[in-house]
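WARN retry 2 of 3 for item q-0093 after timeout on previous attempt; input resubmitted unchanged.
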Amino acid sequence: MNNVRKITDDLYWVGANDRRLALFENIHPLYHGVSYNAYVLLDEKTVLFDTADWSVGRQFLENIAAVLDGRPLDCLVINHVEPDHAASIEEILLRWPEVNIITTPKAVILLHQFGFELGERVEEVHEGDTRCFGKHTVTFVNAPMVHWPEAMVTFDVTDGVLFSADAFGSFRALDGKLFADEFDFDRDWLDDARRYYTNIVGKYGPQVQTLLKKAGGLDIKYICPLHGPVWRKDIGYILDKYIHWSTYEPEERGVMIVYASMYGNTEAAAELLAAKLCQRGITNTRLYDVSSTHVSYLISDLFKYSHLVLASVTYNLGIFPPMHNFLADMKALNLQNRTCAIMENGSWAPRSGSLMRACLEDLKHMEILDEGMTLASSLQEQNMPDLDAMADAIAASVTK
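OK item q-0093 returned
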């Protein structure tokens, strides 16, 4: 049974939802599933924009057949060849062998690497090329490293529809809805959209900025991403989020405290620091145990908040391994423009503080407050002046 949604008079969503997948890209936890989006345009020629992961292949193929209603499939536009969007290409070629494939030269190389035999049916397009399918004309815009090198986006000039590939996507299944305005987006979707962007695309902020500048010259009325809801209202809202995320500017003035604690002593100090911040009027705070929180959530909130506190025990004369992994992910995803404070703990040779500082100094535009502190095994009364000074410095920095 088909399950499609109409977007415009000629355009249909033919994607599907996967609620069984536990780890996106076999890394990032999915507690609410994910959608794989694809779209069919009915014009003088019929056009499919991208395919879907094979996990939803049956539903995806039923949806296409229902929308075509006996018509042939004339064109397949491939904006992005990552397997969660390209896995069903072979089945499309088997069912509609006359289909013409439109994609970038780099995409053709990758498609061959993934084992797709495309024959003579491929039409390579470049930045600024256009194709007319009847009353609808589309233009192609290169989007390299958003987030693969072959990626492009396709803009339907006629109806103002941007087929945005992995840009403007999100984790989470659609639950029968399709449009962002059918949800309470801030409540239900923003955290998943941020976690998707920061962990999947976050490293490539400059490339996203380039794409945003190109998009600024288009009269966009709809954004159709490959994951998550379609945007038809308040497009400036999601564009503003992408500007913040791609420029590494925090969304909010607030403090994220991430602690690494083996036996609870560093955790107790982090909790007391958070309480002291609240006493100073800084209530926009979040505490995370680095050992029990998946790093994708830590990275997501780090893109959200302006200030970061790292509190870690010393482990084998180094940084506690989950904390060290978090710092490595910060570097890998190009995190910058944050104000940081450091708390270290160690029973005989505390070294985690200096090592964490060195990791932060290796990032761009990171301010490290002088007011940090060192614990010897546990928080003692003599540590209170240092803890108060640390809280004062963070509060002053947040409110300045």
